Amino acid sequence: MKLLIIEDSSPLRRSLVVGFNNLGITTDEASNGTDGLSLALNNPYDIIILDLMLPGIDGMEILKQLRQSAIQTRVIILSANSQHQDRIDGLLQGADDYLTKPFAFDELHARVIAISRRGIINNFTNTITINGFILDSNTMSLRYEANDIDLTPNEFKIIEYLFNHQNQVMSATMISDNIANNFDYISKNTIEAHISTIRKKIKSHAITATFPLKNKRGFGYYIES
């Protein structure tokens, strides 16, 4: 499990980091809303622990922007404000839980465990940008600047797989296993033909760009980031 803790109180933030790390839970931390929002938008987390009163961007605005960006990571709000309406507002904005300060660490840990049992929401790598090429897994598209590069479903799956494994050499067999259905097999020659077509399409749409697809002869293909 990986948590993001956005809390401006240094003593509280550090105590939470130490407490969760001692339990074997990985944490990232931010002391202000601007840094916290950036981390939350650009990294995958299982749960975000979010203070409301933050410098830069307040917690409610962070929550709002996350949900508007289709980031559905579980969020536990921490707040010194125990007013009934504030709890309602937080939950309506998309929070999964609301805990008032002061609180016992054991209670927060229990809430983290309870929320994690609802299942992990995957927000991983909706978009990846390399050398100006933008791969968007939500819209199943590859773009360079304002140009959409028209890929077939298998061509897109190949590029998506390689983009998600940057700097790792993937053999034709590994690529085939990833993009084929359970009862299908895509030959090495077919993979090579797909990649050749992808290169041609990209060259026609992005003449001045350098697409980071590399071939390690005898081993496979990789995206150089």
UniProtKB/TrEMBL annotation:
DNA-binding interval(s): 125-225
Pfam assignment, any one: Response_reg
InterPro entries in alphabetical order: CheY-like_superfamily, OmpR/PhoB-type_DNA-bd, Sig_transdc_resp-reg_receiver, WalR-like, WH-like_DNA-bd_sf
Modification 4-aspartylphosphate occurs at: D51
Domain OmpR/PhoB-type: 125-225
Keyword annotations from UniProtKB, A to Z: DNA-binding, Phosphoprotein
Residue stretches making up the Response regulatory domain: 2-116
One CC-aspect GO term: protein-DNA complex
Domain of life: Bacteria
PROSITE patterns xref list: OMPR_PHOB, RESPONSE_REGULATORY
Single annotated GO MF: transcription cis-regulatory region binding
GO BP: regulation of DNA-templated transcription
UniProt xrefs under PANTHER family: REGULATOR OF RPOS (PTHR48111), TETRATHIONATE RESPONSE REGULATORY PROTEIN TTRR (PTHR48111:SF56)
Protein name per its UniProtKB record: DNA-binding response regulator
Originating species: Photobacterium phosphoreum
